[in-house]
Amino acid sequence: MKKVDMKTLLKAQQGELDAVLMYHALADKVKDKHDAETFRRLAAEEGHHAAVFKKLTQQTLKPKKTLATLVPVLYKLLGKKRLYPIIAKFEYGAVNTYAPVAESYPEVQSVKDDEQRHGDTVAGLLKT
């Protein structure tokens, strides 16, 4: 495995682990039950993504609580209309980050596709 691929895969694995905690924390904070259910589902999917990356990196990482602490505070300060587009933007950003490694590691393609759907899902919560 190329060093640059390993670096990207480890960063992706960490990001997915962190997103699990973030989505669970957000699900516990939001007022809308549909939003909470959606965030719990996204958390589960992010956990699956982390497992895909772990299989590739062969490394066990621990999730960092920074986003899980910060995002619920931002929800309270900014509200969903301003926060959800930011979250969607990060999901879309993951699509671009994963694209180069998806060419070499086909299992990353489904993760990349999920991240696109996650961005669309979070953005779609503003329409409900």
Strand-helix topology:
Elements (H helix, E strand, L loop, with lengths): L2 H27 L3 H25 L8 H13 L1 H25 L2 H18 L4
> Poorly predicted ranges (pLDDT <50, ≥5 residues)?
none
| CATH-level-4 superfamily name | Ferritin, core subunit, four-helix bundle
Order of helices and strands: HHHHH
Q: In the CATH classification, which architecture applies?
A: Up-down Bundle
Terminal Cα separation, in Å? Answer: 44 Å
Q: Which fold name fills CATH's third level, the topology?
A: Ferritin
Oligomer: single chain
The total domain count is 1
Number of helices: 5
- Silhouette: globular
CATH class: Mainly Alpha
The secondary-structure class comes to: mainly alpha
> Radius of gyration over alpha carbons?
14 Å
Helix content: over 70%
Query: Main β-sheet, in a few words?
Result: none
What portion of the residues fall into strands of 2 or more residues? under 5%
How many E strands?
0
Average per-residue pLDDT, rounded, comes to 96
Describe the structure.
With 128 residues, the chain is mainly α. The chain has a single domain, classed as Ferritin. It has helices at 3-29, 33-57, 66-78, 80-104, 107-124. Helix 1 (3-29) crosses helix 3, helix 3 packs antiparallel against helix 4 (80-104) and helix 4 (80-104) runs antiparallel to helix 5 (107-124). The longest helix has 27 residues, at 3-29. The model has no long low-confidence stretch (mean pLDDT 96).
